[in-house]
UniProtKB/TrEMBL annotation:
This is Peptide/nickel transport system permease protein. Keywords: Cell membrane, Membrane, Transmembrane, Transmembrane helix, Transport. It comes from Bacillus chungangensis. Residues 96-307 form the ABC transmembrane type-1 domain. Its main location: membrane.
Length: 321
């Protein structure tokens, strides 16, 4: 397992280098000046703007700019945001706790709903309840996250006034108090439900189908022939094998939840890295954009590695050498 993990981690290095070249090239191909946020919009002095380009190194050859950027990046210097006029790492450090809190809440909702509905549908296939769960799953797969978010805000925020429609906490509260954390939980529930519920459909169907398939295998028939209790058969023999597929999805959730949060955070005006990423695209804040893209790429590679490792842990038949 250790050798496999080290081999995969070393294999990430050339992949990340290639990704950095693509990310930097796409940023340079986008229209507009990467440092436009540092220039007063009222300034039209072409000479001043040209001096800024020269001083910041944007007139240097592309290769020279890339080497300078990637060298600083590897040293932990991600540059300065052209919109917020502060180091990129400070901006991300400020936003990322909100995204982690939202993603963890959405992941909790996803797995709870998936286990409850998947186990019920798997144990009672082709019943009315199974068909209702299947209909909800297909509805969840069909509805885009931004549509679900808009309807959720309209119903639960504007009509019922149960949950707030934007923000992550009431700014009037003192950080660290009980009311502060209750406010954070209240603000995260609605976007977490939207993000988590829409991700439940595929997990539920996978778990249901695995339970049905495992319940027909020979080792289950043998357990029933020996007089084993039905509850023990489902919990020990069937569910234990069926849960393998769901557990291995955890690695991919690192990326899928962040990607889903880009839209969800923007609609709910939830101050996380998803909203920050979309705003950086709109405002051409290239230092932030490139840093977040590299971070998402690393999460994708790390998520794949984590999924493979988890698969080897939960399934003793798999050996990673």
């Amino acid at each position: 397992m250790l050798k496999y993990s080290l081999r995969r981690i070393l294999g990430m290095i050339p992949m990340l280098i290639l990704i950095s070249i693509v990310v930097f090239s796409l940023a340079k191909l986008m229209p507009g000046d990467p440092f436009s946020g540092e220039i007063d919009p009222e300034i039209t002095d072409a000479k001043y703007i040209e001096e800024m380009r020269e001083r910041l190194g944007y007139n240097d050859p592309i290769f020279t700019q890339y080497i300078r950027w990637i060298s600083n990046f590897m040293k932990g210097d991600f540059g300065k945001s052209t919109r917020f006029h502060m180091p990129v790492k400070d901006i991300i450090a400020e936003k990322i706790p909100n995204t982690i809190f939202l993603s963890a809440s959405a992941l909790f909702i996803t797995y709870i709903l998936a286990f409850v509905m998947g186990i019920y549908a798997g144990r009672k296939p082709y019943t009315l309840g199974d068909h209702l769960i299947g209909g909800l799953n297909y509805l969840g797969l069909a509805i885009p996250s931004f549509v679900a978010a808009v309807f959720a805000i309209y119903i639960f925020s504007f009509q019922l006034n149960v949950f707030p429609s934007n923000g992550s906490v009431d700014i009037q509260l003192t950080e660290g108090t009980v009311d502060y954390w209750l406010s954070r939980i209240r603000h995260v529930i609605l976007p977490a439900v939207v993000l988590g519920a829409l991700s439940t459909a595929s997990y539920t169907q996978f778990l249901r189908n695995d339970i049905i398939e495992n319940s027909r295998k020979d080792f289950v028939r043998t357990a029933r022939a020996k007089g084993t209790r039905e509850s023990k058969i489902y919990h020990v023999h069937i569910l234990r094998n069926s849960i393998i597929t769901i557990v291995t999805f955890l690695g991919f959730d690192l990326v899928s939840l962040v990607n889903g949060a880009i839209i969800t955070e923007t609609i709910f005006t939830y101050p996380g890295i998803g909203q920050l990423f979309l705003n950086s695209v709109q405002t051409r804040d290239y230092p932030v954009l490139m840093t977040l893209t590299m971070m998402f790429s690393f999460l994708t590679l790390f998520g794949n590695l984590l999924a493979d490792i988890l698969y080897g842990i939960v399934d003793p038949r798999i050996r990673l050498d």
